Amino acid sequence: xxxxxxxxxxxxxxxxxxxxxxxxxxxxxxxxxxxxxxxxxxxxxxxxxxxxxxxxxxxxxxxxxxxxxxxxxxxxxxxxxxxxxxxxxxxxxxxxxxxxxxxxxxxxxxxxxxxxxxxxxxxxxxxxxxxxxxxxxxxxxxxxxxxxxxxxxxxxxxxxxxxxxxxxxxxxxxxxxxxxxxxxxxxxxxxxxxxxxxxxxxxxxxxxxxxxxxxxxxxxxxxxxxxxxxxxxxxxxxxxxxxxxxxxxxxxxxxxxxxxxxxxxxxxxxxxxxxxxxxxxxxxxxxxxxxxxxxxxxxxxxxxxxxxxxxxxxxxxxxxxxxxxxxxxxxxxxxxxxxxxxxxxxxxxxxxxxxxxxxxxxxxxxxxxxxxxxxxxxxxxxxxxxxxxxxxxxxxxxxxxxxxxxxxxxxxxx
Length: 414
Ligand code: SF4
Fold this sequence. Notes:
CATH class of the largest domain: Mainly Alpha
Main location: mitochondrion
Domain HhH-GPD: 60-212
Bound molecules: iron/sulfur cluster
Number of helices: 16
CATH topology of the largest domain: Endonuclease III, domain 1
CATH superfamily of the largest domain: Hypothetical protein, domain 2
Strand content: 5-15%
Mean pLDDT: 90
Cofactor: [4Fe-4S] cluster
Structural class: alpha+beta
CATH architecture of the largest domain: Orthogonal Bundle
Shape: globular
Order of helices and strands: HHHHHHHHHHHHHEEEEHEEEHH
Low-confidence stretches: 244-249
Function: Involved in oxidative DNA damage repair. Initiates repair of A*oxoG to C*G by removing the inappropriately paired adenine base from the DNA backbone. Possesses both adenine and 2-OH-A DNA glycosylase activities.
Family: Belongs to the Nth/MutY family.
């Protein structure tokens, strides 16, 4: 068994744990948001369908705001209400529905995993967090715990960004909250705290608290249902750590959960002293030349050429305007030339660099890449025959473009 977290970070008093569970659940029953996946999971008697409904929501919610997800979730569940329906969908259809939600590999992996459940597990979802994580591609520890506790009532905790924030504040954990050692301790705490009779509701309540009350910048401590258990708040109000037995063992520099000695408590930050993260890695800076090739149909309406990205890597399988990553510090004239050469390969006919009209730049921030698209446009007269043997490409109207599996960045480019 892992060693318990050192004082004052652990929950030592069973009475306090019970009170915390009771207060949190009562608040959740009163204040929880009305969300479509909650309604579906609560009303669904079939265990596999219930697990699927929660699974889809959890994958969509990763790194994405609830407000954004709701519409995507409703459309997805309408189109593919069961695992079996999703297993029969094409990747193109999945990408089309996912377009705009970001982190596109999530949709692809969800569909691959649904196919696996149907073909290898006789259509039945694994019922425990351990099996969900082991058997389903794309299902990590958090998602497995969420599905198992919410859909199947397994008394297992979950740790996501919201839970990290709440637990770090409740227990004054100021060590780097992204470090594996701290994350392990938080999992142990979440597993110890989870309410045994209502694990799914308890986990959702803890996450809901982080999303709506114990928010990153200006937490609403006055309205918090667990404020009496919160050591960060105690410290803010009384200026010193909560007096607990053995507290002198903590904070002298060797506690693995206390803030590092060189980053002491900053009273201007209050409870937002917690959690702390190591400095973020700077995103990679990239420049990509992209060309909107335009043709007019016989009625004079514009059509645009889009090409499909490779089936792995960033934005796998999505469609885009012909694009080419550029080396840093390339002169503008040189940019045009390399782009013209690249386009020539698509068109099968010479493209004059000076015919490319510079339109402007579009900046798009992916999670780890700061991408600048240098946008050019080129109007074409006459027929262009695309080579069916090369990478898939097609001409689309503006309406078809928006209905295709294209990224938000490409929509900005258009
Ligand atoms: Fe978060 Fe404030 Fe509640 Fe503590 S009292 S858990 S800091 S909202």
